[in-house]
Amino acid sequence: MSSADSFSELCKIALSPAVVRRAARVAVVVGLVLAALNHGGVIMQGNVDPATALKIMLTFCVPYSVSTYSSVLAVRELTRSQRGGQVNS
After folding, report:
1. Tens of pLDDT along 36-75?
2. Structural domain includes residue 24
3. Which of 5, 15, 41, 80 has CB atoms 3.0–4.6 Å from 85's, for a disulfide?
4. 43 inside domain
5. For residue 83, is it within any domain?
6. Closest residue by Cα to residue 76 from 88, 66, 58
7. Cβ proximity of 58 and 38 under 8 Å
8. What does pTM read for this prediction?
9. Cα gap 68→9, rounded to integer Å
10. What angle do CA 68, 66, 19 make, to 5 degrees?
């Protein structure tokens, strides 16, 4: 499998509805906790400027990305094991 095929396969998994839904749920739950911990004081004071708003939005990207990455690796490993291929840990 070429690297282009591998990248295409990874993107297909990452954009699959089940992975996107799971990552979105994780991002909402974990993102809310992180946003409250990291920016709660500013939010409660009502002093959210555009830079802080951007930081808060980016806070949700971290758990989304981690969940997506983990799901892609798990799906790829499961698919390879079902095909009888090598599974890397």
Report:
1. 999 999 999 999 999 999 999 999 999 999 999 999 999 9
2. yes
3. 80
4. yes
5. no
6. 88
7. no
8. 0.82
9. 14
10. 15
